[in-house]
UniProtKB/TrEMBL annotation:
This is Hs1pro-1 C-terminal domain-containing protein. One of its GO terms (biological process) is L-tryptophan catabolic process to kynurenine. InterPro entries: Hs1pro-1_C, HSPRO1/HSPRO2, HSPRO1_N, Trp/Indoleamine_2_3_dOase-like. It comes from the Eukaryota. Pfam families: Hs1pro-1_C, Hs1pro-1_N. Residues 170-419 form the Hs1pro-1 C-terminal domain. It comes from Brassica oleracea (Wild cabbage). One of its GO terms (molecular function) is heme binding. Residues 1-167 form the Nematode resistance protein-like HSPRO1 N-terminal domain.
Length: 422
């Protein structure tokens, strides 16, 4: 029960007082309760086998190299560009597949969407740069696969479309990627070859099973997960930057990065969905050839990715920054201190817009992360049969209560107040 004159009271330093004028249902509890996360890595042996199959130790060396120490965006943009370059290799691989039963039409549509989504995300990352230290020049890339895609008969339409997309999406950035796009604005080109290192990626084009596993889906599975892991690595650097910006009270920048993180989660769902286009029998045969087995009911295959587990935990731990953003301490007695601060912020608006945008983005990340695991569970059922979908911890992730109970309570109050007004 709360006073209907809550808004004017929220504009002052006092908290809303209780009265009998309006009955509202507020979700409980108001405070974040420390509970163990339902997500943890698979057995070390399974994780190591996954990493060796993808040649992750070598790939991590490429992601983590710091060739331009003054360029603050390098830790995020480098693995993002490498994911894009690996995607060009996926396009070549799929379009070279001679199996008559492959759905080439749908593959082309999905690959177009995948590469376009990555270009848009990379452009957004570049757009957020506020320093002048990005490595640029007048030259173009001589090592990327994209110019080859734009000239080979089977991939020409896709390749030219990607070049047009780069031109269009990079128009608000201070430089362009330098992959052969028209660049009508004559902006400087990113030193793509020096940043992305396409030659290094090319040396990792074959997985350790390439010589003795006779299965066309082997390369597709390998490349898809290299793309996924590259974006996971980029997201970990992004999460560190979000935390740093919140600590320094740069809430506008943190808000922009949080929305980038949400888009990465949704991109990862799009990457995983490409498994649907793999031939069912060839995929299940490959599963046997690679000896991919579940070791228990709580061992989802995705938990073999240590990076994904870390990304999930760090995304969830953004909730620990709520007191910093709202500038209040958690009430040790469980009172609605955070909820009341959120209500005041939502009502005041003036001077609080960056914080509101940040909190909305954090809740969007929660939704995108939970959607990823829900979609992954359905994907496993489609690809391997429902008998493989028995992972309790996987279900717990997307069925967990909200990460932000105080924000949820504040919005529930506001919704019921306005619903009952008049």
């Amino acid at each position: 029960m709360v006073d209907t004159d809550w808004k004017s009271k929220m504009m002052s330093s006092e908290s809303p007082k209780l009265s009998s004028k309006l009955h509202v249902t507020i979700p409980s509890p108001f405070k974040v309760v420390a509970v163990s996360s339902p997500i943890s890595c698979s057995a070390p042996a399974a994780c190591s086998a996954y990493e060796l199959y993808l040649r992750l130790p070598e790939l991590k060396n490429l992601w983590s190299s710091r060739d331009f120490p003054r360029w603050s965006n390098e830790p995020i943009l480098k693995p993002s560009l490498q994911a894009l370059e690996i995607s060009f290799r996926l396009v070549l691989s799929v379009c070279s597949d001679a199996r008559p039963y492959i759905n080439h039409r749908e593959w082309n549509r999905r690959l177009d969407s995948l590469v376009t989504s990555q270009i848009q995300l990379i452009a957004s990352i570049c757009e957020e740069e506020d320093d002048q230290s990005a490595p640029v020049s007048d030259g173009r890339s001589s090592l990327s696969l994209l110019p080859q895609l734009a000239t080979w008969r089977k991939t020409e339409s896709l390749g030219k479309k990607f070049l047009c997309t780069i031109d269009n999406e990079m128009r608000r950035c201070k430089y362009t990627l330098g992959l052969g796009e028209q660049n009508v604005s004559n902006k400087p080109n990113l030193r793509y070859d020096a940043v992305c290192k396409p030659n290094g990626l090319y040396r990792l084009k074959d997985n350790p099973y390439a010589d003795h596993v006779d299965n066309d889906e082997n390369q597709t599975l390998y490349v898809l997960h290299q793309i996924l892991e590259s974006w996971i690595h980029a997201s970990l650097s992004l999460l560190n930057r979000i935390d740093e910006n919140i600590n320094e009270e740069r809430f506008g920048k943190a808000s922009s990065d949080v929305y980038l993180l949400e888009r990465i989660w949704r991109l990862m769902t799009e990457i995983e969905d490409l498994h649907i286009l793999m031939d069912p029998e060839d995929f299940l045969k490959l599963k046997k050839q690679l000896q991919i087995k579940s070791t228990g009911k709580n061992d989802a295959f995705c938990f073999r990715s240590r990076g994904l587990v870390e990304m999930t935990k760090m995304s969830k731990d953004l909730r620990q920054r709520i007191p910093k953003i709202l500038e209040v301490e958690v009430d040790p007695t469980g009172g609605p201190r955070l909820q009341e601060a959120a209500m005041r912020m939502y009502a005041r608006k003036k001077g609080e817009c960056d914080k509101i945008h940040l909190l909305q983005g954090m809740q969007a990340v929660e939704g995108a992360a939970k959607s990823f695991f829900f979609a992954y569970k359905q994907l496993v059922a489609v690809m391997m049969g429902s008998s493989q979908v028995s992972c309790d911890s996987l279900s717990q992730i997307f069925m967990e209560p909200t990460y932000y109970p105080s924000l949820d309570a504040a919005k529930t109050f506001l919704g019921e107040f306005w619903g009952n007004l008049g």
